[in-house]
Structure formats: structure tokens, C-alpha cells
Design goal:
Blueprint: E1 8-14, E2 19-25, E3 30-36, H1 41-44, H2 46-63, E4 71-78, H3 84-95, E5 102-107, H4 109-116, E6 122-127, E7 131-136, E8 142-144, H5 156-172, H6 180-188, H7 193-202, H8 212-220, H9 224-247, E9 255-260, H10 262-266, H11 270-282, E10 286-290, H12 295-307, H13 315-322
Helix pairs in contact: 2-3, 4-12, 5-8, 5-9, 8-9, 9-11
């Protein structure tokens, strides 16, 4: 490679509304970065993914006096890469960008995983608007939950749906009364439970993931029903993570478990306790780490490793430039 165009690696973390890209040289120095629109093909289409990535590549590399031919390796961790068919669907888009070097296309959960671990090995549980978990073992084998919300935790939606069931059961006298009733009806500004659920069914009352913090707040305030909802949700996510570790034959070893997403970050208490208990029941040497660095840091570390360059030693410089969680 000519000295005027020295090699770099590129890490990409692409979500539904925002994409971050970082370029790093072989010394671990950040030479370029850029942020732009979403790169989840399910939301914006495959052509738009190519346009977003192409624009960010040119912005980050151009600012450093590089171009796409200078990329020794790049790792794209994108939301929406959920099935093998998605890899096939997006391969021509990435090929068309004309980026040199090795390439790895992964689900964005693997960026969060690597961002939180001290090595490429570990597991991540993401509980945000939805839920998913992913992992990589010492043999380099990877696995991920389906993230479809069937037979697995769904992040905030697990909490909200549990709360709605508890409120309805209390109304029907098939379950105990709960402070969730007054809190949910107050937020919706309706008179009672029947008005609330009429609004839900007729589309005049919005029910969204933004209600999850309310469930956790009521649980922390001592309401036993909300506490049960939070614990059930935490245990569900914990069982998902333990099952993933079992699939990767990691239950009998020390495992770093990264916790990411708003429910994990703000769910200290009943949710976190139940999650931890469920994981430790099958993975007794699990070490829990709340994610404090942006996922693009993980994507960039994966790119450094793909190129065979020192990775973990580059983390401090990455954090100096990229900053805290995004």
C-alpha cells in the first residue's frame, strides 16, 4: 500500500435510525468517523443501506486522506441482519461499495457484545424496545436468539404486556389489585380500566415500550404485582441468555455477560435480580457487565481482529474519540 494511502480498518454499527462508522489505523488511532441515517434494510430498503454506508465511508475516509482502497478489513454490524437470507440479500449492496479488504457482516448485537467484553469471547443480553441475545465462544462459534419475541424475552414489551395482563386480571378479580392500574389509566388520562382497554382496542389509547420504565418504577415502589411482572420478565431474559450459553457450551466456564438496552440499564432491582439468578443457575461463573461504551467500539475492535491487528489496546483511544454509550 502506498505510504500516501496507508491501511485502515472500519467498524460500522447500523441501527434503525442511526449509523456510526469509525476508521482506525494499525496503531489503534482513530483517523476518521462519521454518523448518519439508519441502515436497517427492513426499514429503509437495501438501496438506502448502500447509500448510507457509502456516504459515511467517504466522509470518514476522506477526512483522513484515505479512500475505499485503503481499507484492510471492515465489519458491518447492522440491525435487520437476522437470517442467512439477509446476508445473501445485502452481499451485493456491500460488494457494490468497492471497499477493499476482508469483510464481515453481522447482526448489530455482536457489536454490543464486543464493545462490552475484554476479549472476543462472551455473551450479550439486549433488553431495549425488544430483546435479543448473542454470544461467541473460545472456538469462534457464534449463536444468537431469533429476536422474534416468541419463546423468548422481548425487552420493554415483556414488561408492558405483563403489566397489561396484571391490570386486566385485577379488574376481573382473577388476580390481585395492583398500583399499575391507577398509574396506567392516569398516563392515558382515562376514567377507569374499561375505558383504558376500550381505548387500547379502538386505537385511541397508545400502548408502547415507553411504559416499561413505569412498570419498573411501580415495582421499585413496593407493589407486589409489579414486582412479579418485573421478576418474570428478568427471569425470561435470564433463561434466554443461559440457553444461549448452553448452545455454545459455555455454561461450565467463566463468561463475561454484557447487559445492554434501556431495560437492563435502568432495571436494577427486581428485573436485574431475577435475570442474574436465572443466568447463574446454569452459568455459575457468569460475570455481569453493564455496557458503558457505544456498540461502534465493538464493531471497530472486531475489524481490528479481522485484520490481525492489536485490538483491545486500541479501546482507550476509541473511547477518547467516540465517547460514552449511544
Amino acid at each position: 500500500m502506498p505510504e500516501s494511502n496507508p491501511s485502515v480498518v472500519v467498524g460500522v454499527d447500523g441501527g434503525g435510525t442511526k449509523t456510526d462508522l469509525v476508521a482506525v489505523d494499525e496503531h489503534g488511532t482513530v483517523v476518521g468517523r462519521a454518523s448518519g441515517g439508519g441502515a436497517n434494510w427492513e426499514g429503509v430498503g437495501t438501496d438506502a443501506v448502500g447509500e448510507v454506508l457509502g456516504g459515511l465511508l467517504d466522509e470518514a475516509l476522506g477526512a483522513a486522506g484515505r479512500d475505499r482502497s485503503s481499507v484492510a478489513a471492515w465489519v458491518c454490524c447492522l440491525a435487520g441482519v437476522d437470517w442467512p437470507s439477509d446476508q445473501i440479500r445485502l452481499a451485493p449492496v456491500l460488494d457494490g461499495l468497492g471497499v477493499a479488504g476482508e469483510r464481515l457482516l453481522l447482526n448489530d448485537s455482536f457489536a454490543a457484545l464486543r464493545s462490552g467484553t475484554s476479549s472476543p469471547v462472551g455473551c450479550v443480553s439486549i433488553a431495549g424496545t425488544g430483546g435479543v441475545c448473542a454470544g461467541r465462544n473460545a472456538a469462534g462459534e457464534v449463536a444468537r436468539s431469533m429476536g422474534v419475541g416468541i419463546g423468548e424475552g422481548s425487552g420493554a414489551w415483556t414488561l408492558v404486556s405483563g403489566a397489561l395482563s396484571a391490570i386486566a386480571e385485577a379488574h376481573h378479580h382473577s388476580g390481585p389489585p395492583t398500583a399499575l392500574t391507577d398509574r396506567f389509566t392516569a398516563v392515558a388520562d382515562v376514567a377507569d380500566v374499561e375505558a383504558y382497554f376500550e381505548g387500547v382496542t379502538r386505537g385511541t389509547v397508545a400502548v408502547g415500550a415507553d411504559l416499561a420504565p413505569l412498570v419498573l418504577e411501580v415495582a421499585a415502589g413496593g407493589d407486589p404485582v409489579a414486582d412479579t411482572v418485573a421478576r418474570d420478565a428478568g427471569a425470561r431474559h435470564g433463561r434466554d441468555l443461559a440457553g444461549l450459553a448452553d448452545r455454545l457450551d459455555m455454561c461450565g466456564s467463566s463468561v463475561e455477560v454484557v447487559l445492554a438496552g434501556g431495560v437492563h440499564v435502568h432495571g436494577a432491582g427486581a428485573f436485574r435480580e431475577a435475570f442474574s439468578d436465572a443466568v447463574l443457575d446454569r452459568v455459575p461463573e457468569a460475570e455481569f457487565i453493564v455496557l458503558e461504551s457505544p456498540p461502534v467500539v465493538g464493531a471497530t475492535l472486531l475489524a481490528l481482529e479481522l485484520a490481525g491487528w492489536p485490538a483491545e489496546s486500541a479501546r482507550p483511544a476509541l473511547l477518547d474519540v467516540v465517547g460514552g454509550p449511544s
